[in-house]
Amino acid sequence: MKLKQSILLLVFVLAFSFATHAQNLVHGKKLFETRCLVCHQADGGGVPNMNAPLDGSTNVVGNDIARLVRIVKGGYSEKVPLDGYYYNNVMTPNPDFKDQDIADVLSYIRTSWSNKASKITVAQVQAAKRKK
Amino acid sequence: MKNLKNILWVALLAIALGADAQNNAGLKLPEGFKATLFADTIGSARHIAITSNGVLFAKLMYPNKAGKSIIRLEDVNKDGVADKITGWANYGGTGIYVKGKDLYTSSDNDVYLYQLNDKDEVVNPLSPKTIVKGLIAKNQHASKSITLDGQNNIYVNIGAYSNACQEKDRIKGSKGMMPCPILDSAGGIWKFDGTKENQVYGDGKRYATGLRNVVGLDWNKETNSLFVMQHGRDQLNSFYPEFYSDAQSAELPAETMYELHEGDNAGWPYIYFDPYQKKKIVSPEYGGDGKIEGGEKAINPTVFFPAHMAPNALLFYTGNQFPEKYKNGAFIAFHGSWNRAPLPQEGYFVAFVPFKNGKPSGEWEIFANGFSGLSGSEKVMNPRKAKSRPCGLAQGPDGSLYVSDDSRGSIFKITYAK
Lengths: 132, 418
Fold this sequence. Notes:
CATH architecture of chain B: 6 Propeller
Largest sheet of chain A: none
Number of strands of chain A: 0
Oligomer: heterodimer
Largest interface: A-B, 25 and 27 residues
Distance between the termini of chain A: 51 Å
Number of helices of chain A: 5
Number of domains of chain A: 1
Radius of gyration of chain B: 21 Å
Shape of chain A: elongated
Structural class of chain A: mainly alpha
CATH architecture of chain A: Orthogonal Bundle
Low-confidence stretches of chain A: none
CATH class of chain B: Mainly Beta
């Protein structure tokens, strides 16, 4: 009986965690579509010379989470090359994004198209914010 | 066996090239026109210029694989394909213009002058004269397009480093600055002396203002005046969803052609041109709601086009090769949009507007299409899917039209035969 309960609980917890994960990606996708897509494009390919690509970008799939959090929240206007190219457009910040929003949108971006990087948790976003 | 394989490959390549010649290098053109791929993968070819001997020069956005950013292309055997390609310089940029043996180029900050010899080879690749220096280039709209009039004056576009002159650029809710301080040093066309060295802002003159960003411009020899193509503003729906839907934002504002005279003001950032109401409408950053009219003192466009198509080159056709209809008319290279998303993108073609006595005499039409390389009715959903993006135009001494592409690095040559 105890075993049965434990298994049930385990199944429940697993299902819940999968559902939350899926939900997070759904929420991340929605944020991407309303805030990011116009410039970064539906396929994450960006616009040559204008808006940086997210698909395949070394920064996006890289380990500098603090930098990604900073850009999503605060926008971007520096002229530095990304994978050998420069992008001229100014990125609009998202000052209203909560930590969960940042985690979700980054998780979606890092696991979409050809990207196969790790998802980002709220704890990671908070840690990244403490860094600066 | 290996030989046979090689022969087969060569044969296949020949067939492919032959097919390419037959299908006009993939372009769709009006009856009687033909296109060849004059050059391919030369680098990010922005604007182009041709000498009276037919030698073509292309300015690259980035140095190419060989580390060169000004490319010289010559078709020695006259088969419609460049067979002698060389290059020099290592700075990126957009502008290039040739006048006799004077070759002007631009980086995002400066304008340079190179000397050509009687074979149209560059004499001083390492030591050009600096004609203008220290122009504002703050990343956004930094490219400097150039053209000359008949009197050695050079006109330089200095794009506004902003979308709509908000206090905080591209931030929702940030108001437009009044007056817009950017207009003192950008957001217009500046006029300099094409023969004087080391000029700075103070040596030039703000010829026309209120132009967000011009990439395509040309001196019209018939009207003896400057014509420019403005890139209209972005993101009406992102910042003002209460006034503009995605669908409306995709179609607003018009891309506009202006004839400019000294002192003209085209109205940016205070107004934009709505192609449906055919009116100058106050920008929402300045209190507009999509309906309030403004810009009483701003000039009206000569021609307007659908939104966001990014006109990157303008050329008034003065040749004799094309049919009479094209004489003195305007060709415009539309680089293709990106900020119509989530709707399909538009542009990626060369358009034509007929002119008579210096005024448009008919509707604009698509002249050359198919640059994107997509088949049939398939639309470009994302700019990187487009194989080629038209960016520069030049007219050869025989009246052929050349189109450059900064995506794949192709140069197309378009000719007409009855």
